[in-house]
Amino acid sequence: MATNYDLIAIDLDGTLLCTRGRVSEVNRAAIRRAVDAGVQVCICTGRGLNECKHFAAQVGLDGPLVVAGGAIVSDAATGRTLRRFPMRLDLVERLVGCMNAHGHAALVLKDPASVAESGLVPGHDYLIVSPEGENAVDPISRWWFKAHDIRYHIVPSLGDDEHPELTVRVGVCGTRTRTRAAAHELREVFADDVTFHHFHAVVPAEAAAHAAAHSGRHVDTDADQILILEAFDKSVSKWNAIGWLASERGIDTARVAAIGNDINDIAMLRGAACGVAMGNAIPEARAVADRHTLENDADGVAHAIDLILAGEW
Predict the structure, then answer these.
(1) HEC states along 215-228?
(2) Cα-flanking dihedrals φ and ψ of residue 127, to 5°?
(3) Which of 15, 94, 237, 287 is the most exposed place for a label (fewest CB within 10 A)?
């Protein structure tokens, strides 16, 4: 096969994963074909390492993973952090203050590998900052942490953070109505200091039922839709992390392809030599892509990989 690319970066949710949150055998086989052809394949996701490493194992990838929206590059085989793009402490303090002021428990994502290596406290993925304790954590986050065995540590204030240097993201999860005010403040006050996203959360039917049980009503209106609001250092994007990885591997970014569907994929779809938008991609992602493939439920990743390997793209 004659391919024009040496690295293919693939998003997870809405891209490699179907709407049931699974990797199809068709997509797995396509990734194996790419690897057998000498192309490096890298998962690039907004999830943290411990929320996605099992998918890398499922498709047989044991090299670098771009996780946390581009804030960390991890080694899938060892869990070791290869590169971290941390946030300034003063910025974290302002963001946590903003989110707490709007009634949210702030979800402060850490570099879990480095937390574990420090030995100061048990390793954890999230520091949850809330004066109200665990009661302030939204039902979807509670479900997500339990379903994915995610480790977290709850503190009443950021002053109790024993690893301030290891923060890579500050966020909240909640309904569109509940997150609207904090999102507005991020746009108005923090736009020059952070990269931020406000987009739909991955909410499987089980999680939606869990949220409905806790709220006493169904989640069935636009205002009730569950969104993620997250902020990173201004330098963070999936594309910047891919660029770092490509440089480390001696790969020209002109030989990088990327496949994605959502707001946090736009930078890599625009930056890659071949940006491929899924059939189910949001309009903004479709607009910047060079190519368009099938939907995630129709094995759009496999369709794109085969056209890349054939040299047609």
Answers:
(1) HCCCCCCHHHCEEE
(2) -100, 120
(3) 287
Number of alpha carbons in the 13 Å side-chain half-sphere of residue 56 = 27
pLDDT band at 89 (very low <50, low <70, confident <90, very high): very high
The rounded distance, in Å, linking the Cα atoms of 201 and 189 is 24
Q: Tell me: the pLDDT tens digits for 20-36? A: 999 999 999 999 999 99
For residue 278, give both structure tokens.
Answer: 């899924």
Residue 114: its pLDDT value, please?
A: 83
Structure tokens at 30: 């396509």
Q: Which of 279, 271, 268 is nearest to 302 (CA)?
A: 279
DSSP letter, residue 134: G
Q: Is 0.85 topped by the overall pTM?
A: yes
CA atoms within 13 A on the CB side of 60: 12
Q: What is the pLDDT of residue 270?
A: 98
Task: Give the model confidence (pLDDT) of 198-237 as tens digits.
Answer: 999 877 655 555 555 555 445 455 667 899 999 999 999 9
Mutual orientation of helices 205-215 and 139-147 as an angle, nearest 10°? Answer: 140
CA distance 266 to 288: 7
Q: Report percent pLDDT > 70 for the chain.
A: 91
| CA terminus-to-terminus distance, the chain | 12
Q: What is the pLDDT of residue 217?
A: 47
Structural domains in the chain plus CATH codes: 7-85+236-309 (3.40.50.1000), 89-233 (3.30.1240.10)
> What are the start-end ranges of the E strands in the chain?
7-10, 40-43, 64-67, 72-75, 81-84, 106-110, 126-129, 152-155, 167-175, 194-200, 226-233, 256-260, 274-277, 291-292
Find all residues with CB under 8 Å of 62, minimum gap 6, and list them: 56, 76, 77
Tell me which amino acid residue 68 is.
A
Phi-psi region of 229 (alpha: psi -120 to 50; beta: other; left: phi over 0): beta
Residue 59 confidence (pLDDT) above 90: yes
